[in-house]
Queue: 2 jobs
Job 1
Amino acid sequence: MKSSAPHESGNKAPQTAPTSSGSWVGRGLSILITLGVALALLAFFQPPTKQRTEDFALGPYTSSYRAEIEGHPIHCSTLPGGPRCVDAAQHRGHKQAVLWLGNSQVHGVNAYAPGQATASVHLFEHFRRQGVEVQTFSQANANLQEHYVLFEWLRPQLPLAGVVVGLCYDDTREGNLRGGISPALDQQPVREGLGTTAFGRALLERHDERATAGDDAAALDGTLQARSEGALTGWLTENSGLWRARMAARSRVYVSLFQLRNATFNITPTSKRPKIPARYRDNLDALSAFLERAQAVKIPVQLYIAPIRNDLPLPYDMDDYRAFKTDTRALADRFGARWADLEGIVPTADWGEKGTTRLGGGGEVDFMHFKATGHAKLADRLKPLIEALVAPSRPGGAP
Amino acid sequence: MIFNSVTFLLFFVLVLAAFWVLSTRARLWMLLGSSLLFYGFWRVEFVPLMLVSAFTDYWVSHRLTGVDDERRRRRLLYLSLGVNLGLLFYFKYLYFFTENVAAGLGFLGLDWSPDLWEITLPLGISFYTFQTISYTVDVYRRHRPPIDDWVLYATYVTFFPQLIAGPVLRAHEVVDQLAQRAALRWDDFAVGAQRIAIGLFLKVGLADNIAPMVDAGFAAPLDLLTALDIWTLAFLFGFQIYFDFSAYSSIAIGCARMMGIRFPENFNFPYFATSARDFWRRWHISLSSWIRDYLYLPLTGVEVREPGSKGGLEVASRQRRDGALLLTWAIMGLWHGARWTFVLWGLYHAIWVLAGRWFAPVTDRLPALIRRGLAWPVSLAVAMLGWLPFRMESVPDTLHAFQTLLTPSAYGRLGLRENTYLVAALLMVAMVLCYLAHTWLIPRLKARPQLMRPLAAAFFGVVIFVDFVYLRPIQQFIYFQF
């Protein structure tokens, strides 16, 4: 009788991949072609100019600029560089600090020229005269969960008198904490802070699950493998240009794939970006938790709808976009935060183009990043909002 | 040590160089030493544990040959199984067991909350345990004599390319190759290097880049995922685990091949299977054949006359066969991890196999064209959906996902990032193209080597570029945790 075993295959005879047999000349030629193609690709995917890796996604017309004043930073990004900003603030010794959290709009300057200033510089210069430190933290494609974690991380380190948060609809399409921010969740003060809200606890739970089960790098921590890998890659980075070229090539490959996708599907900056329900809910929950926590620790918060180029139809479903504004305003009202709509404050002339997001040359409309003149206008609109934010905590200020 | 690291590449180059300059005996010592070093790079304290498991089976196998009394022989076999499965139980299932006992007692109104210490699961324990068990059972069944040479035996158990995530090797597949002095052949070297390059490409180029999308998708609240999202995530995780696991096997096979040792294939385009049985002939082949020979057939009461043989099988009643199938698959699921979701995954596959049997009278009557036309897409869909219990966090989550799939109104919208659907679709297309290239194009090109060689060289240029640019030990192989 024939068996009906579930796995009757037994072990297959070894299959052989295409072999490279032939003359030694043929083999040598094959090796040369292989190495030649690999090296040609590596050269092809190097940046054409000395553009920084983090600016690839911004395109060639927009630069990221995080200022330093008198050799000390006033604008940082994530945890690795963050302590420099904290040290600088402590060095300057202002008694009050305002934290401004945002996305690449805050550090991206279209058509940047040396000597130009971002809004963070204008605000810093304006408020330092009043003894208030304005510290800015921004990341490309920042999401509201990251803002919440950064707030908890910076709160014990800065004498916060207020927090300003730029709200972009695009940010609600982003999810998860980037590697430069998630390590904050291992720090006790941050854990204690996040532990006071339901969403904060959910963030911690997700993080801990990843650290124990899914975060493979964590499983290697402290092992001989981790130490040897660190030493070897460190040595290669220091001594091999070829090895260093990997990072730029990696970014360029991603950008090229992104451009290929856009060209194939005719995706342009004006294409509608639908809401991603799960991420939207996570981000709004994060904002809610953040405002709840700020209210509990008596730190006033100013939310603002970030400027967007509005001489063209917005690349959103307008019902979703309006709901986003309504939802964020409702949260602000619920937790006693301030809310302002700065959507239309930057005129068309102050916006620029960005490098094409498709294959080939040319520029495309940039809805997110404006020129230095736009930064000045944003700073002008934020100044009174920040004044009002910090006024109650000043001696003699309104309660 | 993990394959997708500079450390491993350097280690392997040194081992390979030593392998080809040393004498046969010195090679074995060197391979044993380097295999222990390979393992110790993760946690050196677990090396003795592996050696205890190996030594137990070495000792038992030698005792077995000197004993004719069947009861004593069986007792020796139970000793080996007890030590191996006991270690596996302690490290892998103790938490699961106590949790479930505590939950069961709680259900009966009894409060028991044991305070267990932290137990770290030793890497690869499920693999080397199965390997040593198969060896002892083969000796017990008198399918092979015990290995006299301790170094050869220990090298077989710990041989580094397959130590952590297979293929699960039987002694007859590799011991003789380890004992003999293989000749240095260009083809072995070239094919081995190609397999390593392809494996790294699958791992660092594909699996690791899909992983964030899969993680983000499965982390989303289930009530916000639509049916199309769940289909997409099932496919995407199916691709990720296939690339990840077949990458490991490919690198293992390539490393061994560069030393003139041939491992059996572990994957053969599993997503082109046309039935459950066909799928398991193509997916993790070494494990499925192990499970057949050492678990399923004994449960049916069938005697396996020689390892890996297809014949000589006497099958018991249908009820016993089906019962054995369900039990085998539940255990197979549990082997993958101490969670009920894995048991569910195993039973899902058992039901798929049984459904194939039940519906055979109906499907066999269909016209061949329709039968063949339906077999692949239906099998693909069933295989991919099978990954849901494998990846979901809990049984209720899994059932919720399946419920969504069965709800027509849940097909109306999309809830994931656009790239997720795009990548899943592209990978499906790419996989079909690879299959066509493998089955149709390459055999034809092989007839024209003047064209084949430069094309293959250029192809491997692209593969090596991706390997070089993306090589980072950011993700361990998924099967490490099993």
Job 2
Amino acid sequence: MRPRRPTWRVACLVAIAALLTACATVPQNRRSHLADPMMSLTDEPLDAARRAKLYDTREGAAGGDGAAAGGGCGCQ
Amino acid sequence: MARRRAVAAAASSARAALLVAALLGPTVAPSRALADDAASSISDARILDAMGAGLHLQSVMTRVTGFDQFGHGYQAQGAPTVLGPGSERETVLEPQAEVVFTQGERWTHRVWIPVDVVTNASPDAIDVMSSASRHVEGGSLDWTSTYKASKTTDLSMRNGLHLENPFRSWDSGFAIRRSFADEATVVGVSALEVFDWFDRFEIDGSRHGHTDRNGTTGSASLTQVLTPTTVASVSYGVTVMEGTLGNTWNSVPLSSGVRGPEILPSERVRHALVGRAAQWLPWNGALRLYYRLYADDWGILAHSVEGQLMQRLAPQLYVGGYYRFHTQTGASFFTTLAPDDGTLRVADSDLAPLESHTIGGKMVVDLPLVGRIRAFHFELAVERYFRTNDLQMNIMSCASGFRF
């Protein structure tokens, strides 16, 4: 019988390696690309709100991520 | 004595001028000039300190979104047969406005006013919504104040009120955000309490007093600058809901050949784990990735993934395209034909096993201006949303505003 490949260990190692890259702080003067609005991790607030409303009221998988769940008719 | 009175009067008028300058100076230029003249005997440093305590407009944004929805769901009445799926046709017009302003050097306020105008919802229903939801208007006022406690720490308070024809909702929350390593790492925690109070209806349309529910959400997030061109974040949140967790007018087809009301648990615990990443691309582009894992104790397990590809065409203009895929298992008690025995049951198409796709594109313009207005912002987005259980929607959204 072949031993099971420890894929979860590989995944953990990759995750740890990715996190370790954060140990070297990127100086402020090298973050010009990150300041571009295109690089924002979240949408512009009003855009994010209308998208959240769309998904929260049509998919029963809203909430849990800091946004209010419920509110308004049709929400559960 | 007269000289002392004169000195006191001068000091009093100087204090008054300082107060006027503090309250009006930064926002009303002519008044500021007058106040500056009146307080000319006060040192520049004191005047600047006083002006720093005034209000400064940061941005004014507006957005209008239109949703045009088609589809059918078993929770809706009005189908040709009693037990068949009814129409979920509706159109929604959703204007929003947002004003951000600072108060002094430490406070930032955000006032957000979203409005929903829903028309044509459940047009063929025989329930209460046959009249009420043909035209429903709802609006919210949400105020968030952020206090910069130190160079690395922000504290936020949030309060909101939502009003809708048969519905009232209040929310209140706070958040703490702290940065480390020259803002390369940002850690945040937040809590939010939502209380809903609304009319209870029977599925035949009769009103049956009021009912309520509340939801408590706690979340934590970590954002990390990984490289000069890569940033990522991960967040986890849990929401605990109690009370009436349905809208009370949804119905369920029963095996006895009639429709009955939903029977839902009175509690729900929802977990969400979210990962985000943004990567700068060498051709003046950006790739944004999103993944969300969701699970709750109603039996729903969901995965959502999204990719957004942005391309800057000019310093003031970029365009983007995006695709989102969502898949979820249904609630464990979801059914389209329930036994008439009083066990948990729901036929809401939102709680069914489903897959959904969103495909869209947007164009964003930020025109720099001269004078007090720093830039004009304009955005146009078009989307198509469709689900595997008979729901489609066309969406158009347009935003404009000014940054100061």
